[in-house]
């Protein structure tokens, strides 16, 4: 390769390395873009009702913060109370089970006694693990502080993007060559439309799953059913893994009442997940975002591996945007054009027959296969 080509290759490699080192910051910026897109759509809805832009944005932001405050107000107090009760109910349950096992020792053959677990011994062996977890409390507080700072950064960036979205859009477009900027504008329009559709479908799914969970848990008589229903709906934003994560606190709280309720909660969440996967998602999300289930799962594994929990939470919108850029830039603008140029150079062959005066009497265009 020539020197210029080597310099271009080195510049590309350095750019990719810098982007990789800044991946967490870029992910936070993308989270702010998704949130700003959501609030911007809500603001446009208010504008369509005749409201001015500034007032529509202020009302959208107010509704957003009211929703966040309501979420934590519904979730945190009931969970704090229930899990405090859980801290002394669970040891009592272990003592009852251990007493029952001791009573059964007299009714079983002596050969099987060594295979019966001793819960007191298991708790004693697990004590170093609990001490280690408590010893890492400072690290947990430090990580929590970092999470709070990241949330504040996302909120500040969201406000900036929402205040003047066109200015930031123009800055991004100018990063591309002049001949390609109009094309980038079209791709950004597609990304914005797809993100808005995903947000619409996601909120419909959140509402339906939350309502089904609330009704089912109320029928079972589980405490804090409203908080658990809200949590189940919110966790549904994480496909595949979210419903599994939301069933754990529900089963733990159900254990406070009776030992059979956790099994009922598990069956309830299983049927809700099946209904969401087989009916709700195909009907709602198929009209909003067309993604294959395997692609969704692979993207979750990829983003959670490299970006952690935030990557898992943003896996679906990241996949939606990445899908559009790959289809439009890599497939249509590179691979398809490459094929057309290749056919233009190799497909047609011109055959002519000259007359006595040296003129071409007949010209025929045929493909190499016909030749």
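^ Assign residues to that structure.
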């Amino acid at each position: 390769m020539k020197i210029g080509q080597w310099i271009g290759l080195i510049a590309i490699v350095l750019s990719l390395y810098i982007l990789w080192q800044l991946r967490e910051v870029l992910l936070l910026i993308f989270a702010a873009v998704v949130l700003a897109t959501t609030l911007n759509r809500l603001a446009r809805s208010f504008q369509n009702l005749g409201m001015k832009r500034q007032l529509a944005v202020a009302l959208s932001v107010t509704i957003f913060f009211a929703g966040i405050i309501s979420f934590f107000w519904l979730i945190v107090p009931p969970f704090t109370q229930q899990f405090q009760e859980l801290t002394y109910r669970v040891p009592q349950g272990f003592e009852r089970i251990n007493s029952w096992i001791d009573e059964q020792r007299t009714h079983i053959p002596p050969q099987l006694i060594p295979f019966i677990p001793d819960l007191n011994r298991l708790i004693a062996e697990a004590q170093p693990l609990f001490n280690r977890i408590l010893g890492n409390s400072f690290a947990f507080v430090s990580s929590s502080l970092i999470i709070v700072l990241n949330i504040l950064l996302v909120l500040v960036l969201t406000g900036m993007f929402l205040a003047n979205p066109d200015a930031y859009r123009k800055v991004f477009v100018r990063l591309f060559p002049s001949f390609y900027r109009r094309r980038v504008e079209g791709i950004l329009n597609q990304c914005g439309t797809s993100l808005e559709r995903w947000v619409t479908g996601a909120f419909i799914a959140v509402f339906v799953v939350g309502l089904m969970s609330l009704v089912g848990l109320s029928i079972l008589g589980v405490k804090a059913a409203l908080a658990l229903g809200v949590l189940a709906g919110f966790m549904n934003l994480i496909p595949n893994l979210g419903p599994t994560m939301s069933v754990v606190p529900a089963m733990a709280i159900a254990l406070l009442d009776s030992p059979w309720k956790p099994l009922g909660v598990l069956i309830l969440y299983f049927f809700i997940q099946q209904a969401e996967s087989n009916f709700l998602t195909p009907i709602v999300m198929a009209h909003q975002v067309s993604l294959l289930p395997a692609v969704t799962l692979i993207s979750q594994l990829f983003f959670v591996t490299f970006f952690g929990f935030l990557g898992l939470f943003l896996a679906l919108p990241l996949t939606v945007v990445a899908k559009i850029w790959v289809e439009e830039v890599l497939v249509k603008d590179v691979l398809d054009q490459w094929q057309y140029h290749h056919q233009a150079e190799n497909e047609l062959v011109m055959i002519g027959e000259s007359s006595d005066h040296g003129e071409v009497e007949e010209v025929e265009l045929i493909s190499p296969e016909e030749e």
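Residues 133-142, 348-356, 360-371 have pLDDT under 50 and may be disordered.
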